[in-house]
Design brief:
This protein is mainly beta. The chain has one domain (2-108): Immunoglobulin-like (Sandwich), CATH 2.60.40.790. The chain has strands spanning 2-3, 20-24, 28-34, 43-47, 51-56, 58-66, 69-77, 80-84, 95-99, 102-108. The strands form 3 sheets. Strands 1-2-3-10-9 form a 5-stranded antiparallel sheet, with no helix packed on it. Strand 6 (58-66) and strand 7 (69-77) form a beta hairpin. The protein is rod-shaped. The termini are far apart.
Length: 122
């Protein structure tokens, strides 16, 4: 299992970096990302042959009203993570699930088209 470090989880543009695990098996990669507070409708997962991009949006508002007093706070967050796979994957077969703030994406590895080829010398 590969674990990306948690150090510096806030990037230069205030985007929150998502802690992820990358698990490799013989047939697939599994990416497990912590996405607390992110709703499924506010989450986007994009997979290409070599990369995965995970981005979400959270919005939180606290409002307390009392006579002569109003306290209101708003916060917005865009947790994102982009990873490069060690080898090519098949993005068409990727599957993603979100449960209890944990996103799990399974992406099968791409099968080599040719095991090898002897090149004749001319």
């Amino acid at each position: 299992m590969w674990r990306w470090p948690r150090a510096s989880l806030i990037s230069d543009d205030d985007t929150k970096l998502v802690p992820v695990d990358l698990v490799e098996t013989e047939k697939e990669y599994k990416v497990v990302a912590e996405m607390p507070g992110v709703d499924k409708k506010d989450l986007e997962v994009s997979v290409t042959e070599n990369n995965i991009s995970i981005c979400g949006e959270t919005e939180n508002e606290i409002k307390k009203e009392q006579e002569g007093y109003l306290h209101r706070e708003r916060s917005y967050s865009t947790p994102c993570r982009n990873l490069r796979f060690p080898e090519a994957v098949n993005p068409d077969k990727a599957e993603a699930t979100l449960k209890d703030g944990v996103l799990e994406v399974k992406i099968p590895k791409r099968k080599p088209t040719i095991a090898g080829k002897v090149v004749p010398i001319k």
